[in-house]
Amino acid sequence: MRIAEMDWRAVEAWLAHDDRCVLPLGSTEQHAGLSLSVDSILSERVAAEAAAPLGVPVFPVLAYGITPAFAAYPGTVSLRATTFLAVLKDVLRSLYSQGFRRILLCNGHGGNGPGAAAALEFMGDYPDCRARWHDWWRAPRTLAAVNRTDPVASHASWMENFPWTRLPNAPPPPAEGKPMTDLDRLRSLPPDGVRAQLGDGNFGGLYQRPDEEMLRIWDVAVAETRGLIEDGWN
Fold first, then answer.
1. pLDDT value at position 234?
2. How far lies 194's CA from each of 14, 32, 66, 178, in Å?
3. The model's pTM
């Protein structure tokens, strides 16, 4: 159940018998010809679909993350790591104060990785709480499904191209894929250099694969996330 579809009384009623919730984490950054909100769209959607049969509340996605490398692409918004971690800890403290004790952090952006350490620090301060970090797209079963489909998968490539991350009026993507970029070199470049190396923003691979393949991967991701919400707390 999305928090946007609940009032405070519904949350209070939930907390009277359960202490679980899900907090999606995303980013606003370039994704080649896909939406700038890919990471936020996917993390919030996988969380909502996974939690729906369980009735577990899903909070609105934290739509800004740590993405300084893409600053030369218009539309990208990057938080300082210190800002992101401060906001994340404030949200966790707020949830804890209301009675949530099992919080799944459903992350959709690799740059938000420092948040996993913040979750561990939070549990050190509040040892009766479980704040579990879940990179949904590279969780074991989901990543295996991606690799079975096409091992050449990367940022802004086919693996993020779902019907709900495409832009309706965007030109069709190139039919041919890109060679994988040199990631080691990319990590050493400032934002202008990153844009010069990447061009449109795809790290490498095909831009799109058939929807039936994507939906199979999606079903695995939803089921894997639901399993963590159900009994991934020990």
1. 81
2. 46, 13, 15, 16
3. 0.96
